[in-house]
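Dear Dr. H.,

I hope your travels went smoothly. While you were away I took the liberty of generating a structure for the chain from your last submission, since the lab meeting agenda had it listed for discussion. I wanted you to have the full record in hand beforehand rather than looking at slides cold. The sequence, exactly as received, is reproduced here:
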Amino acid sequence: MLNADYAGAAMLAAWKKRAKTGWPSVLVEHVESSGVVGGAAEAGALLSGRTFVSLGELPPTTYTSRSCTARSTDLELAESYDRGRCRFDGPIVLDRGVPSAISYG
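The corresponding predicted structure, in token form, is as follows:
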């Protein structure tokens, strides 16, 4: 993106500024996962993730999910709602097992 007139660098700087300014209004409202029926989820299990996020003024693009039990993964925009609310869906691969006492959605 960087070229002779630095337009790519200017675009990146503008994007970073929007993201930094808008980040405090981002709220993960609800997270669902499915794919484990009964019992405990083992390391390496593949779940289907669905995340509902309020983005405020930020545009809906790809959302990166990070949790204590899963690797970072990109979730694709599935639906957009009013007032900056969106749903992102995608696969989640567990790094370690999760006890069966935890609800999976």
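Two observations you may find useful: The radius of gyration is 17 Å. Residues 99-105 have pLDDT under 50 and may be disordered.

With kind regards,
E. W.
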